[in-house]
Request: fold
Amino acid sequence: MPGQNTRVNNLMRNGSFSRYGAEWTTLNTVDYSRQYCRVLNGQTSQVISAGAETTYLLKFWSQVLFKGRGELLIQADQPSVGARLDLNDFHLWTRRQISFTTPPATTNITVSVIGTEGEVCVDELNLILDTSTVPTPELVLNGDFSANSTHWDTTGSPGGSRAHFDGNTFEASLNGRARQTIAVTGGNTYELSFRTQVLFGGHGFFRFELAPSGVFPEIRVDASDWTSHTREFVMPAGTTALTVLMIGIDGAVFFDDVSLKRKP
Reply:
């Protein structure tokens, strides 16, 4: 078992297991009697207060014995957002690390160690803010439309309008539209970018709606050549979500490469 102490800026409580299973939530068979954690067939976890759009670095020691199989998970309190590290292959005490950037609106993260076979052992878990990594994750899902309409909502497009996804672009006309709502954090600065092409003398708009209330100025698009658009926004205090809305009024309005990232 490693013989070094966890650091004073460690965000985890009892990451060295010097107080055995204190501060940890245990499910099924987990042993702390050796002042490290042996997950035999179960799970141990801990919830830690965390900031939104912040990168954390978890360093720890692991050991896998007797054909052990398991994993370490870091899970945000936003659905389906997390990182994992497999703990399957036999090894004696080895230094490991994993980094994770939290999504907007995060308030907590959960660190879990799961074992389903053999012995999956961890010790000296040290969670710190990773100041060496600037978090700039892409916040728009399927912004290149490679998955067609996945994550985009065309509700509100009137009958007879065109709202078409071809696997490369979104085409809108006659008030056809598509929208996506993105979690954001009030007070942070974001950069939006997208590209458009407008044919047959038409025009369209890229609009913004804030939750719980508010808007940003809309962007009119009417250039016949592919044109890049970039805007920078500071989210008002208390803002929790931004909805981006693409609308084609007439002609044929093509949208592509929609992106939203937090600026450092």
Notes: The chain has a mean pLDDT of 92. The chain has no helices and 13 strands.
